[in-house]
Specification:
Layout lengths: L2 H12 L24 H7 L6 H7 L7 H10 L4 H12 L18 H7 L5 E4 L5 E4 L1 H4 L11 H8 L7 H19 L4 H11 L2 H9 L10 E6 L3 E10 L8 E9 L15
Antiparallel strand pairs: 1-2, 1-5, 3-4, 4-5
Length: 271
């Protein structure tokens, strides 16, 4: 627990909320001149016993329950980055899930410019793997000359002919990503439809039901047939826009020809 950071985060955001916006009156008695909600009013609004919020803000509530933190974060209109900070300060860990169901549906528009500046194929998808932005080198990868609307569907269903050794080099590594995403977003209609279509395919169903532990492609190399440059390999560099949990920024470094002898370069570390 980081008591000082926790107190500053909560006290500053509490001060921004006028009691009147929640049908409450501003306390006028002696001894309180602070703006915003009182600590007791926070207890009222999140339906907790008197003194609960005071314990949290003062740092005397070790390992506060996630549901309490979530209720307070929603009341204070935290964004996803503030939600992560709250859980780290109060519990010493990242939150188990995003704060809002809609998180991951949109990323800041600046990412479109960022993608356009990359010389390798690059793109940004939302938490459902819907394509939000991509550059021209990414379009050139595909036989149609146009990037697919959903990259998860393309990797698992529509793009198999272009993905070399799909059943061994792609499916066992991509399918666990779909399963992990659905564990966190069980009501995602886009991902559920992809799963349904996979299960309707006997070959894909058998691979999908095997499961797997690989859910992060960062640094992976996989074989692919580039629509223009022919057979080769892509190295996947993956990042996540912090404002949109579940979204991803991908750079695909394509190398034509056979796989290099050292497919896993050493990790970068500060000297």
């Amino acid at each position: 627990m980081n008591k000082r950071a926790l107190k500053h985060l909560l006290k500053d955001r509490r001060a921004l909320i006028a009691p009147e916006t929640h049908g409450l009156t501003r306390p006028t008695g002696p001894g309180r001149r602070a703006p915003g909600l009182s600590q007791h009013q926070v207890d009222q609004l999140v339906n907790r016993a008197f003194g609960t919020y005071h314990r949290l803000e003062s740092g005397t509530y070790p390992n506060a329950p996630v549901d309490l933190l979530r209720d307070i974060a929603c009341l204070f209109a935290f964004n996803e980055q503030e939600w992560v900070s709250l859980c780290r300060y109060a519990r010493g860990e990242d939150p188990p899930s995003p704060l809002y169901d809609t998180s991951g549906d949109a990323v800041p528009a600046a990412w479109e410019d960022a993608v356009a500046c990359v010389t390798h194929p690059a793109y940004v998808t939302d938490a459902s793997w819907n394509l939000l932005a991509c550059n021209e080198p990414f379009h050139r990868l595909f036989v149609s000359g146009y990037a697919p609307e959903n990259t998860m569907r393309w990797m698992l269903i529509d793009g198999r002919d272009q993905l070399t050794d799909w059943a061994s080099a792609w499916a066992p590594l991509v399918m666990p990503q779909l399963q992990a995403a659905l564990a966190q977003r069980p009501d995602d209609k886009v991902l559920r439809q992809i799963e349904k279509d996979l299960l309707d395919d006997p070959l894909a169903r058998s691979l999908y039901e095997l499961g797997g532990a690989s859910i992060h492609p960062d640094g992976d190399e996989r074989p692919i047939r580039h629509a223009v440059d022919g057979p080769g390999w892509v190295t996947m560099c993956v990042a996540q826009p912090l404002a949109a949990p579940g979204s991803r920024f991908m750079i695909l470094i394509f190398r034509p020809g056979p796989r290099r002898s050292n497919p896993r370069p050493p990790m970068l570390q500060a000297r």
